[in-house]
Design goal:
14 strands, three-stranded parallel β-sheet, 9 helices, five-stranded mixed β-sheet, alpha/beta, D-Maltodextrin-Binding Protein, domain 2, 2 domains
Length: about 260
Amino acid sequence: MKRTLLSLALGAAVSVAAVTAATAGTLDDVKAKGFVQCGVSQGLPGFSNPDEKGNWTGLDVDLCRAVAAAIFADPNKVKFTPLSAKERFTALQSGEVDLLSRNTTWTMQRDTALGLNFAGVNYYDGQGFMVRKSLGVTSALQLNGAAVCTNTGTTTELNVADFFRSHKMQYEVVAFEKADEVVKAYDEGRCDVYTTDRSGLAAQRLKLKNPDEHIVLPEIISKEPLGPVVRQGDDQWFDLVKWTLFAMVNAEELGVTSKNV
């Protein structure tokens, strides 16, 4: 989203930021240190990805900058912590990051058992499969016996297990902690299939040696509402992040940009 939407987020969230908490919370800590510490991916184009100079861009990054704008009137008062899928929740729970904006699926288990709150949905995705064209496969229903690459600590592991079991097919999982390790293993032929959210497949396909030699199969095997996450028990911070997100969504829907504000 365009930078001016960050200013709009400031206006939408300013009343939340002005509320004085009875006890010190995340907002007070953020103000004291002078920046928002935001947990993001280790590099996923379109969501959170650094360039060669370390400048982060993407949908999830925009949310982090908007929250910084809502607090400091400056979208640059944010620092980014790259996290693997396995690391992300621990980093948020421990206070290493103030906000997790890392293409994370909102599930009942995560929202109730991990001490976390999802502030909303900024991208609605679904899990899919990518294969080499040379494999001659046109449907996920032809993947019986395949070796499947994916990330540990994600809903994709559970979804792929459910999919293969429900269709009475065999498979072998080849799992790695870091996304780039999964991409590398798939590109080197250590597995037949790469599975993750379809947006992730499109983004990671660009990192392959020969992207045009790979296709994403048509099946979508899950619903993946992705969104930012905060710790439970801090309603002031939860409201600030939530209404900043809503302001950005409304601004985009209404066509609000730097040219018409």
